[in-house]
Amino acid sequence: MKNKKSGNTIAFILYLAVGVLCGIFVVLSSDPEKFFGTPGDFALQMFFCMVLILAAYLIQSVIHEFGHLVFGLLTGYKFISFRIGSFMFIKKDGKLRIKLYNIVGTGGQCLMMPPPWKEDLPTALYNFGGCIFNFLSAVLFFLLFAIAEKGSFAALFSGILCAVGFGNVLLNGIPLRVNGISNDGNNALVLGKNPSALRAFWLQLYVNGLISKGERYKNMPEEWFFVPSGEDLFDPMVCTVGVMKYNYYFDIHDFEKAETVANYMLHAPGLLGLHRNELSCELLFLRIFRGAAPEEINALYTRELDKYIKATANYVSRRRLAYAYQLLYLKNITMAQKCLEVFEKTVKTYPYSSEIENEKEIIELIKAKSEIF
What we know:
The protein is an alpha+beta fold. The protein has helices at 2-28, 32-35, 39-74, 124-147, 153-173, 184-193, 195-212, 236-251, 255-265, 273-289, 294-300, 303-311, 316-329, 333-349, 353-372; strands at residues 78-84, 87-92, 95-100, 108-113, 177-178, 181-182. A 4-stranded antiparallel β-sheet has the order 3-2-1-4, sandwiched between helices. Strands 5-6 form a two-stranded antiparallel sheet. A hairpin with a 2-residue loop joins strand 2 (87-92) and strand 3.
């Protein structure tokens, strides 16, 4: 918890620094008489600058993920998907398709299939590729700012792009865990210290690659996944393998073992906040599904978890959770039907067919369970 708070604090300070730097570029690139005119003119200018800052963050996010892609390809990785915001470009059957998917706390993500496992697996360039591209673009935009005419749109926007680019280098390069998610610098730091983390990193990317191709956990060798113990419980990357162990048991519908693993991993000190929230959602479902006492369910369904559930409502697993909650726990058939309809709509734009396949099976199990009550 302490690391999470310190990471969030540092990130907040860095965002403030980027804002100040943007302000400096705005002043340097503007005509003072026009910028500091009437209060109405000043307010309009500030609104326009805020729009440009948001646009700059979007552009630099694309540049960042493109950096991961380029350096990944150069070091033997293969393209899987490229996501900016909620829009994901994913390769399926040799074609690029557009799907909707989002991960809370991330503006984008480039996923790649790693090269075959080896102990000296190349990871540095893949992890820092985004920062390298942000840095190079920031230098380029600074040069454009320097040669652009003062008071022009080119000077204003290139200055803001420069500030945001340097900000992205710091936010992603300095090892941090922000909102429970490790940034590129933190991933590189962990991989450099622990050989088990390196293997876990490779396995995570490899399994994600298989899932993107339509493979399911149940068809993968069980021995790939293990529940960490000892010092490994303090390593975020190794803890990811424990989460995958849960996914394996859930996919083969061994809910008893899945719940055991979820309970165990939720006590792991190194478990990322994102995975902690995901496992809490899954544990909530499992308790509802087995008909746990209301006290046991309500104890898990905290205000913080409810906030996360709402933030990830577009996940098919959240749609399934909502359906189970309404049908099995609240016994509200009308609302359950509405949840089922939303589930079917979500499935149409969801990127992972293997996950959809399993979720549909779980939906049928929920229906069958409701008939018992």
